[in-house]
Each structure stands twice: as C-alpha cells, then as structure tokens.
Design a protein that fits this description.
heterodimer; A: alpha/beta; Rossmann fold; 8-stranded mixed beta sheet; two-stranded antiparallel ribbon; 10 strands; B: 501 residues; alpha+beta; Dna Ligase, domain 1; 6-stranded antiparallel barrel; 5-stranded mixed beta sheet; elongated
C-alpha cells in the first residue's frame, strides 16, 4: 500500500502542468511592516503598517487620522527613508510634523492648489485629480518608503466617484515599488484594494479644564477599529490581536508643562 | 631635421598696435596717425605708424606735442579693436596649424608648430609664403620666420622683414647679424652690452660663456644660448576653454510655435553636447536654453539637475518639462544650448541601507510635479525662525543620504490641520467667550473653550500681526470637532485657523 506521501507526490506530478505544487502548503511570507511608534497601535496591527500595500485610515474629523499618519512617517523617516505627503487640501502643518519627529528634509510635500473658489484656467484638473496623478508619479518613480494621500477634507461623495481601477493600479504600483501607501479619508473608498483598513472613531471626551484649573486643551484620546487586515491570516500569528485600540495624544504645549 | 623635432613658424605683425587701429579704419593706412593712451589730459602717444614716425613723432610724446604735427591724425586707443585684431590673427594661424602658442612679450605674435604640415602646405618656404599672404588678406602686414628653435624664430620674425626660413642647425648664423636688442633684453643688460661694444647677436655668441656667466650671472647663460639660437623652449599651445566650447546653436527657417517639434532638434543638440562632455569623463551640471523668438526677443531658461547627468533622455525630459511650464511668448526662430560640465556623480550604495529615489528619476518626477502643481507647491517644508505659528518656507526636495537615526521618544502630538487660507466664521460670544460658531452654513455649539491666547509679532514693521486664539470643542448633533479659531482685532473678524485631527 503506497504511503500518503507517495500518493501526494503522484498527484502533484500529474497536475504539475496545470497546478504547480497542488497539495503543498504555500508558506506565506511575513509581511514587512513599518512600526508607527505607538505600542498599543502596533500591537493591534501586528507590528505596524504593511509595506508594499495600501493602508486606509478613515473616519470623521478630529479622530486622529493625521496624528497617526505623522507619527508613522516620523518612524519611517528616522530609519533613513524618503517619504511623500500628497496634500489634497494643503492642510499639513510643518510645525506639527516636526514635533511628531518627522525629518522634514526626507519629506516631499506636494501641495495641491489652494484656490478653492476660483477656477484656474491653466490647470484644468481638480485638486483630487492632481493628487491622484501626483501619487501615480510618485509610485512610478519608486524609492519612497511611504506615500500618504491625504484626502481627509474631501467629501465621501467625491472619493466614492474615483474609479476602482485607480486603486487597483495603485495597489500594483505600490507592491512593485515596495511603498507603504496610506490613504486618509472620511469614509473607506479603496474597498478590497486596501490590505489594512482602519476606522477612526470618536473616543472618550477629555474635558479642557480639569481640577478647577484654567481651561487648557492638553490631550485627546483617539480610538481605532480594525476593519480589515489581510496579513493577519499568517500562520505565524499565534494570538488574534484586539479589534479596537485606544491611544492618547497630547498638545505641544503640554510637553513643557 | 631630427625625427620628432618641432618646426616653428613665427608670425609677427610689426607695430601691432598701429596696425590694429588701422585695421578698423583702412582709410588711415596712407596717412600719418598716432594712437593716444591714458587719462585726459595726460594722454601720451602709445603707437604711431611709419608715416607718422618719419615726420618725427615718437612714442611717449604728449597729446599736445603730437598735435603740433599738422597732418598727423590722432586716435584714441580702443582695447576692443586690439582684441579683434588678436582674434583675426589667431584665426589665420589656426588655418595652418592646430598647435599655436601666443608669444606674450610681443603682442600679436604667434608661434605655430608646423611639423608635419608639409603634406598640406608644401615645404617650409611655401608654407611661410602662404601664411604671409593669408595674413595680408586679413588686413595685416606680418613678418614670418621659420626655424627649429623657437627663440631664434621669434627674434628673426621681429628683426627681419618678410619671410625668413632657417635651415636646420643654422640658427646661430641666421640671427648673427641681428642687433642684440632683438633678443628682448632687460634694460640693464642692454646698457651693459652697449658699454661693452656688443651690437649683434654674433658678437654676443662669440663671447666665452663662462666669462659671461661670471659677469651677468645665470642671465648671462640664457642670453648666450639665445644669441647662438640654442635656448630650448617647451611649447604651451593655446587650448580653447572646454566650458566655452559647450555650445550648440541652430537657426530655423520659419518660426515654430509647438515645443514638441523642437524636441527632435533639442535631442540632437543635447546628444552632441553630451558626447563632448563624456569625452572628458564629465557630466552635464546645467543646461541653459536660449530661444530666439520671432520679433527679436529672447527666452532663456536654465535646467539644473540636482546631480550632474550623463543621460540624454533625462536631460531632454527636464528641458521639455521646464519649457512647458514656462513657455515662450512667440514663435521660435533660433535655438542655443549652453552646457556647464561637472564631475559625474558617483556613490557607493550600501546593501543594507534604506532605499532612496534614484536621482535621475527623482529629478524628472520633481519637474513633472512642478509642472502639474506649480513651483512653490513641490518640495520639503523648512521651519523658519519666526514667532508666527506655522511659519515655514518651501525648499527643494534633496533628501540626505540614507542613514539610520536613533528613534527619539516623543509622545504623540495632536496634529493640527491648517486651514489655508483661514476660513471666516461667525462666532456668538457670552462673557467674552465663544458659545456658538457658524461655519459653512452649519451652527456648532461650543462644548469646551480654552483661551484667549494673545499672539502678535512684527510690531516694528508694516507686516505686524496680532490675534486672539481659542481652542474650542464644537458639536453639531452627532458631529464633533476640535478646532482652533482666532479673532483678528484689526478686521474684527473670526477665522478658523485649523482643525485638530
């Protein structure tokens, strides 16, 4: 009686032309990740945001999307990598970025046109179209460890109109360039193209005034919920991480207090 | 003649400065004229032609003395005319030999290495005659001397009119009859030889060398060798400046409006420049594109990649993107490309270092971005030393070489999303604190407010600014926002500075 191993070899050799290694378990490689620098969030994400894929961070205003993205970029630039920030609304604060620890010389900041009410005759594209084109160029050039496409202030009805083919193209380009592509949006738009999808939710409200002192905005509590993480199917992960995590952020002036 | 020996032909226009002045005004050739130099009124006669000298004019006379001669025309010295004369003579000399040296102590004199030119111009005598005729055609009268010894040829050209050809080994005999002043003596040596009664080179050569060295030092040895036509010379040919030669020009038959049609020409010109630059193992650091426009105007752009490039495609793309971003105002009738070379960029990348964008691709990508977004919207932010919150300037994106830094442990700061330009909002106050904010057609209730923080700056100048900032937590049904609003006391308006996110 032939052993199970012999039968398996026989089946595989028969099917080799059509399905290579049909019965051999394909070992999934551990994805390369960039740590965000926040222990709680990294633990939930399995180490950080994955490289060569799309990560989507969505949620309403004041829920910590920009803080998280800047903190992640700080970690990546401090490793010596170049990063890019595609700013659809021209809203990035270089002061906050520097305070987060981002090495500004390694950050390419692309500011879309701030003209909101006047239509530019020589630039027919809207800011969103410019941003998509700029992201495409960045991914084609390669060499950037992370690219953040900041669409935080773009209404969901506008981002939903972006063809799905764009995200597929971005996913392939990011994989080819080994770039961590991060989208900051109000509602998820990349659907299945995003390997990691995070939803930012309003967390516990921290009042400004505490212990009878003069009111001062000192800290804020944010909360992430993991909606999708394709990398967690890895057999190396023994324990399923938490679905939700809460993390604090504090204002610049509270550091010196 | 010894194989490999150099044969010099020296071209000397006698009275060069007068000839240079007459070259610009040919009608003066048959009239006596002097060239004056110096600051008025202390002008002196700097040069005079033969006709003027024969009337008694001497070099060094004052203007008044020169004007005392009735028929003598006085001219001002023009340096540009002398440069033109130099260029003309150099051009003529270039037609006869690729190796030319300018004899610095005798203006307008050029020494040509004519070794091996006999196949083109015949023997030395024929070449010297052809050279003299060419110089005359160009408007100058020059003496030509051909000899194996450089100094002998120079002395002969300066001292003897017409064409002189010295056979090999006969230099001492050929210059023997020349006065010792033909050796370009120092004034003290000239006086010494006059006192000794030495008038010709042959008389100087006949002196014992050791005795001459005893009396004149090492200069005596040199003068003795010069008089014998045996002082060696190392030729330093004039080499055209490599950087000046990196120019490509093209004229068009009719004005061209579309840039795409010029790309073919620009590609050819860039390739030609790159070939020349590569020949010297260098790369192109900057390309200046000069477009001559219909109507006489010029459009000039400079493409300066971050690193010197040796790649035509990249350079061409950079030129194209730059010209598309800054298009010329009229049709193009002429093209000029001026290149600046530099040592090519070489870097040894580490295997385990973080990845970085490839410099050539990065440069093209940044040029594309500038075209897409605008000049000031692409780059890295740099914080400026200013009190104004969020003061920064854009600098070109030039990431430093990849290296790992130690992670500094910062607490996560709350990021501010800046509103550029600030939005005007309506604010209702109670007890001098905001209680309601009206923004984009929606009303928000202020749940928490911290402030006011009064900030101001530049009070000493026109650009002074001041405002009162508030951090507010706004709520509108289900929506909650953390914002920074500011009151401007000058305009009495409230603005949204940004949103915390």
């Amino acid at each position: 009686m032939p052993s199970a191993a012999a039968i398996r070899v026989q089946i595989e050799s028969t099917l080799a032309q059509r399905v290579p290694a049909a019965l051999t378990l394909k070992i999934k490689q551990t994805p390369e990740v960039f740590a965000s620098g926040m222990a709680e969030v990294d633990a939930m994400l399995g180490g950080g945001i994955p490289r060569g894929t799309i990560t989507e961070v969505s949620g309403p205003s004041s829920t910590g999307r920009t803080s998280f993205a800047l903190c992640t970029l700080a970690s990546i630039t401090q490793l010596g990598n170049a990063c890019a920030w595609v700013d659809v609304s021209d809203a990035l604060s270089p002061e906050t970025a520097a305070a987060s620890g981002v090495e500004l010389r390694r950050l390419l900041w692309l500011r879309m046109s701030a003209e909101r009410r006047t239509k530019l005759t020589d630039k027919p594209w809207s800011r969103l179209e410019q941003a998509l084109k700029a992201t495409d160029l960045l991914l084609q050039t390669g060499g950037f460890a992370a690219v953040v496409l900041d669409m935080s202030d773009v209404l969901p009805q506008h981002t939903q109109r972006i063809p799905l083919g764009t995200w597929y193209r971005f996913r392939l380009a990011a994989e080819h360039a080994r770039t961590a592509l991060v989208f900051l949006t109000q509602s998820p738009c990349a659907s299945s193209c995003a390997t990691l999808s995070l939803r930012c939710e309003p967390a516990v409200v921290v009042p400004f005034s505490s212990q009878g002192e003069t009111p001062l905005f000192e800290r804020q509590q944010y909360q992430f919920a993991r909606e999708r993480n394709r990398n967690e199917g890895s057999p190396f992960l023994q324990r399923k991480p938490a679905q939700r995590v809460s993390w604090p952020a504090e204002t610049l002036w509270s550091r010196v207090r | 003649m010894v194989a490999g020996a150099v044969m010099y032909a020296v071209l000397h226009p006698s009275n060069f400065f007068a000839q240079a002045a007459a070259h610009q005004r040919p009608e003066l050739r048959k009239q006596p004229f002097v060239v004056l130099d110096g600051e008025p009124p202390a002008e002196m006669v700097f040069a005079a032609n033969h006709a003027a000298r024969s009337q008694g004019v001497e070099i060094g006379m004052t203007r008044l003395q020169a004007e005392a001669f009735s028929k003598v025309v006085t001219l001002r010295r023009v340096i540009e005319h002398e440069h033109t004369a130099h260029a003309t003579l150099h051009h003529v000399a270039c037609m006869f030999s690729p190796r030319i040296e300018s004899v610095e102590e005798r203006p307008g004199t050029y020494a040509l290495d004519i070794h091996g030119m006999d196949l083109l111009y015949g023997n030395a005598t024929e070449l010297a005659n052809k050279l003299r005729r060419s110089v005359m055609t160009a408007g100058f009268l020059a003496n030509i001397a051909v000899a194996e010894n450089f100094h002998a040829a120079v002395s002969l050209a300066c001292g003897r009119t017409g064409v002189s050809v010295v056979p090999s080994g006969c230099e001492a005999h050929a210059i023997g009859q020349l006065p010792v002043t033909a050796l370009h003596l120092a004034p003290e040596h000239e006086a010494t030889f006059a006192a000794w009664g030495i008038r010709t080179c042959a008389e100087l050569a006949a002196l014992a060398e050791t005795d001459l060295i005893t009396r004149l030092g090492q200069a005596g040895k040199k003068l003795h060798s010069l008089a014998r036509g045996a002082w060696p010379h190392l030729m330093f040919p004039i080499e055209p400046n490599f950087e000046d030669g990196l120019v490509e020009q093209m004229e068009l038959d009719f004005p061209v409006e579309e840039l795409e049609r010029l790309l073919f020409l620009l590609s050819r010109m860039t390739t030609a420049l790159l070939e020349r630059v590569r020949g010297k193992a260098r790369a192109i650091a900057a390309l200046r594109v000069v477009l001559r426009l219909d109507g006489g105007a010029q459009h000039e752009r400079t493409v300066r990649p971050a690193l010197p490039l040796q790649d035509t495609a990249t350079l061409l793309k950079l030129i194209q993107l730059d010209l598309e971003t800054h298009p010329p105002s009229a049709g193009i009738v002429g093209l000029e490309l001026h290149a600046q070379s530099a040592a090519p960029y070489r870097a040894q990348h580490g295997l385990f270092l973080p990845q970085a964008p490839e410099p050539g691709h990065l440069e093209v990508m940044l040029a594309r971005m500038r075209k897409l977004l605008g000049e000031q919207r692409v780059g890295s932010p740099e914080l400026t030393d200013d009190h104004r919150p969020n003061a920064f300037r854009m600098v070109p994106f030039e990431p430093p070489p990849p290296r790992r830094n130690e992670r500094q442990s910062f607490s996560t700061p709350v990021a501010l999303r800046v509103s550029r330009p600030p939005h005007m909002v309506g604010v209702a106050l109670a007890n001098h604190a905001p209680v309601r904010v009206f923004w984009d057609g929606a009303a928000y209730v202020v749940r928490d407010a911290a402030g006011p923080v009064r900030v101001s700056g530049q009070w000493w100048s026109e650009a002074n600014w001041c405002r009162e900032e508030w951090d507010v937590r706004l709520e509108n049904g289900t929506v909650e926002r953390l914002c920074r609003i500011a009151f401007d006391p000058r305009s009495h308006c409230w603005y949204l500075q940004g949103t915390y996110d």
